[in-house]
């Protein structure tokens, strides 16, 4: 039947969702692109230097990329996707599962040659600084060769057929990868490496760890594992080697160094970006689970929530903290697109369940002594893929999870930090009290690296000052893959009950100038991992603590791990190692384990399979049993005192004769040392500030500036930030300016503070002698 006047029309296909604005530093690759175009994009992102401020994220839409025709002979393979993954570059697939994106080729990381002609005998630097990069959520059919097919035979990028190289150290995770072949974690010539982290992945062939001194693998499956130096840890890994760890202080060649747990006590894969033609972009947030094993995407156990991209605010590096916080307060989740974010206040996450996802090693940089990011008294927050750089003005805390005394938490939806990397120094001068502070209960820390820089900008004992890498005050906190290095007091302080750590790697600070400058009361040095005296339950598995005191002084650490001796505070498989330099570590846990000192392998390495020994008492039960009485004795700690003095008989400072610098006259000198002593109970916070009046003759006091420094450490002291002389702009020391401070809970002791003084006056200033008074004020 026909109807007059009607017409048949074709309905248009559903419009594809709009492309979100991820900014200029995100590259989206799709299967329509040529291999040459893909490789050019990879090359453009891979060339950053170690402390570059550029950031890159590369994502592959679902599809197959490259040709597998040359898999058997990589050196002659053509049409393959090939690129190195460089500093501040993250590469990921956008599929729901890793197999949705298949790469025929290699996205790889290679070691740095110590010598071009004899690499086997020159192992440094190798992979020791291969940091700050990642790869996730894709499958690779490994076909690796040098990008230049005419590269010499010694080229480090060469690999065996069906082998992918990921030769990295810290902050370079592999997550949700499906390697359809072999994976090597070391350089081609066995170069030094200090990694590393692999999670939620499958490697069908052999993983060769080789020169990796330690490595943590979580919830994965492997064909076979080959190698192990000091501390290889596996939790929930199908195909992992059997538990095998030395049971004697000097080690035992009959034993490997494997810590193997059948399941991971608590885990949550990191959130990740996805795309499909129907729904466009979203962020998948996996659920947290207990006692997990194997990759959830492989065995069908992964569950979670997919959040549409419209529920996220896509921040750009030019955004202020106020702009970002307004979006969070309006109920948005947050994606930090690649770049460095200068923040004059903390990003404040105060809504339960909020997701904050950084792309391309997005970096938060406090500028005013503030934290970078804080989580309020709420549960279920997810922070992932975030790097933090301390600023020159000291921040008491850089990342805070929960306020002091936090009440809100969830055992089934724990607040989770994944791939959070905090730096104090390196890219810039940085100062902080504590890198990460966890006050909330039921928090999961997964792949954390807190690093006080041992090289780069401001890497010096009195410059990049920082007390602790991690302080845990909340109960039932779990850490899986915890790396904390070079802080000036304890690397980790764990005050909460019910804590669990699976894998710990730590190097003590390299640069204490003397033993006196690095002493915890009467105890030599500061324990790397300290469990608070009031803790009655704690478990840790696979711990490695290493020393390299490089200032030429005979410096010792009394014990790597300090903890109360109860049967319920346990350490399983711990190792200490003298790497180089002088001094060493005298014990593994408390007074047990023996010294790791310079010498042969047995002298330099100490192993402890289990602590405390059998027969150690349980902690006392509150209240006791029916036939027991509880006797409570209160010992009141002496109140102690806080005092400061100018450590010189003559309090006068005579600056150098003024030098003509062209546009101004400059004179310099040094503040007389100021000694601060604090023996008070509880370590209350303190600060010491200085302010100068005008000079005689009408010369403004603002012309004087300073750069505070820590002469000798103690009492938790952290020097204040530099204050520029206010000749052109600014008020210099005419405004009260911080000379030094300490946060709540610092150790008792004495510190000496100093400052380099800088006076800049106009070139037409009349000759003469000018005098001003600098007043110091202490607050506590």
Describe this structure in words.
The chain is mostly beta strands and 780 residues long. It has a 15-stranded parallel beta sheet that branches. A hairpin with a 4-residue loop joins strand 48 (659-660) and strand 49 (665-670). The longest helix has 11 residues, at 35-45. It is globular and about 85 Å long. The termini are far apart.
Name the features.
4 helices; 15-stranded parallel β-sheet; 780 residues; single chain
Major sheet summary line: 15 strands, parallel
Number of strands: 56
Structural class from helices and strands? mainly beta
Q: Which blocks of ≥5 consecutive residues have pLDDT under 50?
A: 1-15
**What is the rounded Rg?**
28 Å
How much helix is in the residues?
under 10%
Strand content: 35-45%
What's a quick, concise take on this entry?
The chain is mainly beta.
Please specify the SSE layout and strand pairing.
Blueprint: E1 26-29, H1 35-45, E2 56-60, E3 63-65, E4 81-84, E5 89-93, E6 101-108, E7 133-142, E8 163-165, E9 174-179, E10 182-184, E11 197-199, E12 202-208, E13 214-226, E14 231-238, E15 258-261, E16 264-267, E17 272-276, E18 280-286, E19 289-292, H2 296-299, E20 304-308, E21 312-315, H3 321-329, E22 333-336, E23 340-343, E24 347-349, E25 355-358, E26 363-366, E27 373-375, E28 382-389, E29 395-401, E30 415-424, E31 432-438, E32 443-452, E33 466-472, E34 478-485, E35 492-494, E36 499-507, E37 519-520, E38 523-524, E39 529-531, E40 538-549, E41 556-557, E42 561-562, E43 569-581, E44 584-585, E45 596-597, H4 601-604, E46 605-611, E47 642-646, E48 659-660, E49 665-670, E50 674-678, E51 686-692, E52 704-712, E53 718-719, E54 737-742, E55 749-761, E56 774-779
Parallel strand pairs: 1-2, 2-5, 3-6, 4-6, 5-7, 6-7, 7-9, 8-10, 9-11, 9-12, 10-12, 11-13, 12-13, 13-14, 14-15, 21-22, 22-25, 23-26, 24-27, 25-28, 26-28, 27-29, 28-30, 29-31, 30-32, 31-33, 32-34, 33-35, 34-36, 35-39, 36-40, 39-42, 40-43, 41-44
Antiparallel strand pairs: 16-19, 17-18, 18-20, 37-38, 43-46, 44-45, 47-50, 48-49, 49-55, 50-55, 51-54, 51-56, 52-55, 53-54
């Amino acid at each position: 039947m026909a109807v007059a006047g009607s017409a048949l029309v074709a309905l248009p296909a559903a419009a594809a969702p709009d492309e979100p604005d991820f900014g200029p530093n995100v590259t989206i690759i799709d299967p329509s692109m040529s291999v040459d175009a893909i490789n050019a994009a990879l090359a453009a992102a891979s060339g950053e230097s170690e402390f570059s401020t550029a950031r890159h994220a590369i994502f592959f839409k679902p599809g197959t990329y490259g040709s597998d025709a040359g898999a058997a002979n990589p050196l002659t393979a053509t049409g393959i996707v090939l690129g190195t993954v460089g500093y501040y570059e993250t590469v990921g697939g956008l599929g729901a599962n890793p197999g949705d994106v298949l790469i025929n080729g290699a996205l790889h990381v290679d070691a740095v040659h110590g010598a071009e002609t004899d690499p086997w005998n020159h192992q440094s630097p190798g992979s020791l600084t291969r940091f700050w990069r990642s790869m996730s959520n894709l499958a690779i059919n490994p076909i690796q060769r040098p990008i230049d097919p005419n590269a010499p035979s010694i080229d480090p990028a060469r690999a065996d057929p069906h082998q992918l190289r990921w030769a990295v150290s810290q902050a370079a995770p592999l997550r949700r990868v499906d390697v359809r072949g072999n994976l090597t974690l070391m350089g081609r010539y066995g170069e030094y490496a200090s990694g590393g982290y692999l999670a939620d992945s499958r490697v069908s062939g052999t993983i060769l760890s080789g020169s990796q001194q330690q490595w943590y693998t979580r919830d994965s499956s492997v064909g076979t594992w080959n190698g192990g130096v000091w501390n290889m840890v596996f939790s929930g890994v199908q195909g992992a080697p059997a538990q095998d760890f030395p049971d004697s202080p000097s080690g035992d060649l009959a034993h490997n160094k494997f810590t193997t747990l059948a399941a991971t006590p608590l885990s949550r894969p990191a959130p990740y970006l996805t795309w499909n033609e129907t729904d466009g972009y979203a962020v998948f947030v996996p659920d947290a689970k207990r006692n997990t094993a194997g990759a959830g995407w492989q065995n069908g156990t992964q569950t979670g929530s997919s959040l549409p991209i419209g529920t996220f605010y896509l921040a750009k590096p030019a955004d202020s903290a106020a702009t970002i916080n307004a979006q969070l307060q309006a109920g948005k989740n947050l994606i930090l697109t690649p770049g460095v974010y200068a923040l004059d206040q903390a990003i404040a996450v105060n809504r339960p369940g909020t997701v904050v996802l950084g792309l391309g090693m997005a970096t938060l940089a406090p500028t005013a002594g503030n934290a970078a990011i804080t989580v309020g008294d709420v549960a279920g927050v997810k922070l992932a893929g975030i790097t933090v750089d301390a600023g020159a003005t000291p921040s008491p805390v850089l990342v805070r999870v929960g306020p002091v005394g936090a009440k809100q938490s969830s055992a089934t939806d724990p607040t989770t930090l994944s791939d959070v990397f905090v730096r104090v120094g390196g890219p810039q001068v940085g100062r902080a009290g504590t890198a990460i502070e966890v006050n909330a209960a039921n928090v999961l820390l997964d792949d954390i690296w807190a690093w006080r820089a041992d090289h780069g900008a401001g890497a010096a004992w009195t410059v990049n000052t920082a007390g602790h890498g991690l302080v845990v005050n909340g109960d039932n906190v779990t850490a899986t893959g915890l790396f904390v290095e070079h802080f000036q007091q304890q690397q980790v302080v764990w005050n909460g009950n019910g804590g669990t750590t699976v894998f710990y790697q730590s190097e003590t600070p390299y640069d204490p100038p003397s033993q006196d400058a690095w002493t915890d009361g009467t105890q030599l040095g500061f324990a790397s991992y300290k469990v608070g005296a009031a803790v009655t339950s704690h478990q840790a598995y696979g711990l490695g603590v290493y020393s390299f005191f490089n200032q030429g002084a005979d410096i010792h650490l009394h014990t790597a791990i300090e903890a109360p001796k109860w049967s319920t505070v346990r350490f399983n498989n711990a190792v200490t190692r003298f790497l180089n330099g002088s001094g060493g570590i005298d014990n593994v846990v408390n007074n047990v384990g023996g010294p790791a000192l310079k010498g042969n392998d047995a002298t330099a390495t100490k192993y402890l399979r289990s602590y405390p020994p059998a027969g150690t008492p349980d902690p006392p039960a509150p209240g006791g049993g029916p036939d027991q009485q509880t006797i409570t004795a209160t010992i009141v700690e002496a109140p102690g005192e806080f005092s400061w003095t100018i450590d010189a008989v003559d309090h006068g400072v005579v600056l150098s004769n003024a030098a003509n610098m062209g546009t101004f006259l400059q004179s310099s000198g040094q503040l007389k040392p100021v000694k601060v002593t604090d023996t008070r109970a509880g370590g209350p916070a303190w600060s010491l500030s200085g302010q100068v009046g005008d000079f005689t003759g009408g010369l403004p006091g603002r012309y004087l500036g300073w750069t505070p420094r820590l002469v000798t450490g103690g009492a938790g002291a952290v020097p204040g930030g530099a204050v520029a002389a206010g000749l052109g702009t600014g008020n210099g020391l005419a405004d009260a300016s911080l000379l030094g401070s300490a946060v709540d809970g610092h150790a008792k002791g004495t510190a000496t503070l100093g400052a380099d003084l800088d006076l800049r006056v106009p070139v037409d200033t009349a000759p003469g002698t000018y005098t001003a008074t600098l007043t110091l004020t202490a607050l506590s």
